[in-house]
Known about the structure:
By secondary structure, this protein is α/β, with parallel strands linked by helices. It has helices at 12-24, 35-44, 61-71, 86-95, 107-126, 132-137, 142-154, 159-166, 171-183, 199-216, and strands at residues 4-8, 28-32, 49-53, 76-81, 99-102, 156-158, 187-189, 194-197. The chain has ten helices and eight strands.
Amino acid sequence: MTSNIIVVDDDQDLRESIVEVLIDNGFRTMSCESAEIALQKVAIEIPSLVIVDNMMPGMGGMAFIPLLKKDYPSVKIIMITAFSTIDNAVAAMKAGADDYLPKPFKRDELLVAVRLNLERLKFEQQIGAPGMDEAFSCLANEIRRKILTTLFHKKEMRFMDITRHLGISDHTKVNFHLKKLKSNTLVAQNREKTYTLTPQGEKMVDYLSVLSQRISD
């Protein structure tokens, strides 16, 4: 099932535009014209992500966010606002927002933010699995990230092919990082001494790809 997203904005044209973009890209989406109505809908079905406007009649985004996070801390929240300042962005994050989009934003900017936050949610849900916290630590090392992305594109490689592709002459260094990746079940080695990504390793590469796209934008 696709992720459930709620769009909260009193501006009907913008609200409907966001919903249309999300539905066209395969997201199950509903909309609310107020934060009060959104809280009622969340109580019926917990969404994966909420996109909420900052300034609305009645309860605004800044008041809505901490209320939502208090009862549903795992739900990702993207704040949108026409009043884009550093202070507003900091305030939104302090209130509990996971991301921040200044108006007017482009269609692709919206989609990148949505996909990134849904990827974050997916991985956070997996952290509770045995060893996931250690697996995430592998992403902090550049050589390990390169090994993962290389195996993703090449599908399978032998040890010497990996070292040549990375341009690293110190074989012990590459071997060390491969062992780390294997111990965290991100990389597997078969009887022919060929390395491949595990399903978990493929998920890590997907996360890196979304994160890289978000940073470059």
